[in-house]
Specification:
Number of helices: 7
Oligomer: single chain
CATH class of one domain: Alpha Beta
CATH architecture of one domain: 3-Layer(aba) Sandwich
Radius of gyration: 17 Å
Shape: globular
Strand content: 5-15%
């Protein structure tokens, strides 16, 4: 099933939406100049809130958000090459404060859930991982969506699923690999 175009989607109070890491980064994270995806997903996020859609995050997503945000900021600063040394430096403190502030903002409007790891088909997930089809965390996120009947909001082109509804602006997920956002 191709994804649903987030540009034209009408959000409702009955929507149950799992926000993927990349969406949280586009809305709350450090941005590259002129990245139109940030505007697209920030606008969609605003519409979700206005519609009182039910928003969810998972520990995997929050962990990826924190780690990716930190690495993006480290790259923008260009003062450290090693992640662990960056975390121990004075440069890390303001970055960590920004991340903490954004995690608190996210937590105020989302419901925390868990990935239902104990119920996941681990053998199937590992088999898919081994052949390189899809990353482990993405599979766990799709499993969570199936288990809780959630719609995944993502820009991750690898999160293609036949049985999970996906809201996106990613042309590859919309079934049009040649289109530009």
């Amino acid at each position: 099933m191709p994804g649903v175009d987030i540009h034209s989607y009408t959000f409702t109070a009955t929507d149950q939406l799992l926000l993927d890491t990349n969406i949280l980064l586009f809305v709350f994270g450090p941005q590259k100049p002129n990245d139109r995806r940030s505007a697209v997903y920030s606008n969609a996020y605003k519409k979700m809130l206005e519609a009182n859609s039910k928003l969810y995050v998972d520990v995997l997503i929050m962990s990826e958000f924190i780690n990716r945000y930190t690495r993006l900021e480290m790259g923008f600063l260009r003062t450290h090459k090693d992640y662990k040394n960056f975390r121990k430096s004075e440069d890390f403190t303001p970055v960590a404060r920004d991340i903490a502030s954004n995690v608190r903002r996210i937590s105020k409007v989302t419901t925390r859930t868990n990935c239902a790891f104990e119920e996941c088909p681990l053998d199937v997930i590992i088999s898919e991982f081994v052949v390189g089809r899809i990353d482990f965390n993405d599979q766990m996120i799709l499993h969570l969506c199936r288990t809780m009947n959630l719609t995944l909001v993502t820009d991750d082109g690898d999160c293609n699923s036949q049985d999970v509804k996906i809201l996106t602006a990613n042309s590859r997920l919309l079934g049009n690999p040649d289109a530009i956002l």
